[in-house]
Amino acid sequence: MKHYQSYIIMIWVACAVFFSACSDEYMEKMNTDPSKAATIDPNAQLTTAQLQTYGDLGMVEIYRNYLYAFNQHLMGCWNTTNYGGRHTVDNSEMSRIWTSFYPMAIKNITDAQHRTADDAKKVNINSVLRVYRVYLMSIITDIYGDVPYSEAGKGFIEGKYNPKYDKQEDIYNDFFLELTAAVANLDASKDPITGDVIFNGDVAKWKKLANSLRLRFAMRISNAAPQKAQEEFEKAIQADGGIFENADDDALIKYMDISFSFGQEAYSDYRGNALSQLLFGNDPANNPSYLCSTLFNQLNNTGDPRTFRMARFYYDGLMSSTSPANRVDLTDEMITKNIKFQPRDPGAYSWEPWPTGYDSDVLKELAKNNAAVNPSVARETEPKLANNFLKGSNPGVVMTSAEVKFLLAEAKLKGWNVGSASVNDLYKQGVRASMDFLTKSYGCPAVSDQDFNEFMQKNGIGYTNEQKKEAINTQAWILHFTNPAECWANVRRSGYPKLKSPEAYGFGQFLTGGAEIPVRLCYPVLESSYNKESYNEALSRMGGTDSWYTHVWWDKDITE
Predict the structure, then answer these.
(1) Confidence class of residue 38 from pLDDT cuts 50, 70 and 90?
(2) Mean pLDDT taken over the chain
(3) Residue 18 is inside which H or E element, if any?
């Protein structure tokens, strides 16, 4: 079945990518030329949009280059430090989500949604398209702020070639309407959904996802519109179909384990997880993904059992250029010898400062039969991302039950009506689910009940409401390691963990784009020419400047 599904996916991707690559002019000609296909299966368009989410190699650069640095999950690799770690304004890099999603996924979904609207035989695929469009648009608006929404993707359909920028508040209000309507329309007795690589067409799970996304979005706006947030959150819990309850509900995009390639063809092949591929890198032996000191120290200093499931210390001198095979794991040796772990601080490259090394007994043994192996190591003492996270078959994370537990915990803390479970219990359930998520989805060794209980005994949720809020959202920050867009949004919304600028670590002179951690990304420069009127209207609402220090609508302190 898995091989059959993969084969079908390959066909769908080939067809759907062709469709989405067409310009509006060409599409118009295609739909009036009897020699061309008049339509494309909306299920195929759904497949393409889903796979593009984490499968677009060019687009996910924005995660490695900026968001992983802003979130302080990774640091040291050239790309992460050069852009996000050093606050370098690069218009091309910042625009990747915009210039990839709008002409591809959003265009595909909008077209498919339009063609299935008011069709009783396609009510389920239409509803799923609505849910997924909302999800993708949430990524776009959370990154940029006011963006094209109501008119986005309607160039061919309605001649909207210069779509207006909707206010983020209006966008979020429509999210709730769209998700509510989709849940009401989903009906397991009606049309099968054949292009779904998340839930394989399971209507019940799509209802749960829509309702759970309402929880996420309600919490997102809780500082900007607290009454609306509470109302939507409480309604979502009671909505038909329920919310995510356990790992079986997790919304994860299924990818194939394909050989990593950075050739031109790799940028249009969405079958593998491109984020995993980028974290592996095109020069993995010399430019691997290192964990930032903020994340590593949080894990290691609290005795978190995930520490050495996420971070490992490798010698990469024998490493393959196409997979993490032949890495030599020095972690256990370093722990036994009490070798100092040296993660990179925010703003630092892997060589700043040059780490203190040691002579490895493991490598001495290998050197006996391989003269190319150097037993004296230095940068190997910097924690690298474990191999488990570098596989093309890794899932693309949309939303998990662990996140829902943390959302419920914070909602309970706010006094919202979310059921009888306590804040502490929901928090504990979220942490447990987060640890299990690494096992189920990434093949990390399972965390035993004993290790989990010991960790929880030493790391309670705190006593004051603010301490509890910090604990909940710090754990969400760890959970969202493989979901960097959601991670950045929640860090900005919650204020936790409290991340310090690279300036605090001695790198202020390198921060050419400003000292503080940015709070949004700038619009593509070409928008100022090709969509000038709408672009200028958006800027006027932002104080006239397209600054990455302008807060998006929902990003405000509750005390304001």
Answers:
(1) low
(2) 92
(3) helix 2-21
